[in-house]
């Protein structure tokens, strides 16, 4: 639960927050992030724009009771651990006037790749703009030697993408392996999720969601696998994090059938449904288009509070979102007071 001393970000003193709020209408956002997340998210340009819009970011002190800090309008967090989750849940109950982004119990669903994509699978989203599903997958919790039999029984088709079962934001949780043959499956390390590999032109779409705002960027991904390659190549090939800022495909000279973004109306419906089903407002989707089709898409990963610092224009999108939360909360409070009167 404690941050190391060198990880404590510089911030204004807590005692000055209340005084500043009284002097002028300021939206105070308390944040509990790792030092790495703080650096990538709270970039100087973003903080400067936020200040100009009346938004102040204040670091939450992990060594003091949360209720003794603030007052906050919004609490922004991405820390793990049962103790921290309980602290936040208690805080939400005792401070209903504060917006917590996002409810810790809702976030937990995205920390397990077994449950992560279930919402999308249950939706079976299909309309005139296309169809969205998830690759067939299998969870292996232990005993690597049993994987080939389990894959046969499930009817999964090689090659298979292997991903760690736990998605906790660490570098290891983003490592992928691609298994080309049955024998090599025994070399994998459970607990993991096996997904059927879908050829997608080597490009995936990162769909960033900030409240009701949606931003899509292209990223290079794993290349397609031909039947000829599958018959000749054996073994397991490991990849570090596939989708990263350096792998941007937005300016690449791509085949239009591969580069075309998913239809906006399809993404809007998908995002709206996932916000409702997941109970989250800050997440992104990794989406691929099945190669050779124009309108058949798969969601292959969902991440909570992703690297928004890599999202073009995130400064304006995120500050507008924070302001809208406070305005919405104010309207709801007025409505409740009116009904009581």
Automatic annotation (TrEMBL):
GO molecular function: ATP binding; inositol-1,3,4-trisphosphate 5-kinase activity; inositol-1,3,4-trisphosphate 6-kinase activity; inositol-3,4,5,6-tetrakisphosphate 1-kinase activity; magnesium ion binding
Residue positions binding 1D-myo-inositol 1,3,4-trisphosphate: 37, 78, 174, 206, 303, 307
A cellular component annotation (GO) from this entry: cytoplasm
Binding site for Mg(2+) 1: 286, 301
Cofactor(s) recorded in Swiss-Prot or TrEMBL: Mg(2+)
UniProt keyword annotations, A-Z: ATP-binding, Kinase, Magnesium, Metal-binding, Nucleotide-binding, Transferase
Residues that span the membrane, as ranges: none
Enzyme Commission number(s) of this protein: 2.7.1.134
Domain Inositol 1,3,4-trisphosphate 5/6-kinase ATP-grasp as annotated: residue spans: 127-323
Catalytic activity field: 1D-myo-inositol 3,4,5,6-tetrakisphosphate + ATP = 1D-myo-inositol 1,3,4,5,6-pentakisphosphate + ADP + H(+)
A Pfam family recorded for this sequence: Ins134_P3_kin
Positions of Mg(2+) 2 binding: 301, 303
Residues binding ATP: 113, 163, 195-206, 221
Domain Inositol-tetrakisphosphate 1-kinase N-terminal: 28-107
GO BP: inositol trisphosphate metabolic process
Cofactor note: Binds 2 magnesium ions per subunit.
Described function: Kinase that can phosphorylate various inositol polyphosphate such as Ins(3,4,5,6)P4 or Ins(1,3,4)P3.
Family of the protein in this entry: Belongs to the ITPK1 family.
Subunit architecture: Monomer.
Protein name as catalogued: Inositol-tetrakisphosphate 1-kinase
Organism, as annotated: Hibiscus trionum (Flower of an hour)
């Amino acid at each position: 639960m404690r941050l190391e001393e060198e990880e404590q970000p510089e911030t204004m003193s807590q005692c000055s927050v209340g005084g500043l709020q009284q002097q002028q209408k300021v939206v105070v956002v308390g944040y509990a992030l790792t030092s790495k997340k703080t650096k990538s998210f709270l970039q100087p340009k973003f903080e400067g724009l936020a200040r100009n819009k009346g938004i102040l970011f204040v670091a939450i002190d992990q060594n003091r009771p949360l209720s003794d800090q603030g007052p906050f309008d919004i609490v922004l967090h991405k820390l793990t651990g049962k103790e921290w989750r309980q602290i936040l849940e208690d805080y939400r109950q005792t401070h209903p006037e504060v917006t917590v982004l996002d409810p810790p119990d809702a976030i937990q669903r995205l920390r397990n790749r077994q449950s992560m994509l279930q919402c999308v699978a249950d939706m079976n989203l299909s309309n005139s703009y296309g169809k969205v599903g998830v690759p067939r997958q299998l969870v292996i919790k232990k005993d690597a030697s049993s994987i080939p039999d389990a894959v046969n029984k499930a009817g999964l088709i090689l090659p298979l993408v292997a991903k760690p079962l736990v998605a906790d934001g660490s570098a290891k949780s983003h490592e992928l392996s691609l298994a080309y043959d049955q024998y090599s499956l025994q070399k994998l390390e459970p607990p993991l999720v096996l997904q059927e590999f879908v050829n997608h032109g080597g490009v995936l779409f990162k769909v960033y969601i900030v409240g009701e705002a949606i931003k899509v960027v292209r990223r290079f991904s794993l290349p397609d696998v031909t039947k000829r390659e599958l018959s000749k190549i054996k073994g397991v090939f490991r990849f570090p994090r596939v989708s990263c800022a350096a792998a941007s495909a937005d300016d690449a000279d791509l085949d239009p059938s591969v580069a075309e973004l998913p239809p906006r109306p399809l993404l809007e419906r998908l995002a709206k449904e996932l916000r409702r089903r997941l109970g989250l407002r800050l997440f992104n989707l990794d989406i691929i288009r099945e190669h050779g089709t124009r309108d058949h898409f798969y969601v292959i990963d969902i991440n909570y509070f992703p690297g928004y610092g890599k999202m073009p224009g995130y400064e304006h999108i995120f500050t507008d979102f924070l302001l809208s939360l406070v305005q919405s909360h104010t309207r709801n409070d007025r409505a409740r007071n009116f009904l009581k009167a």
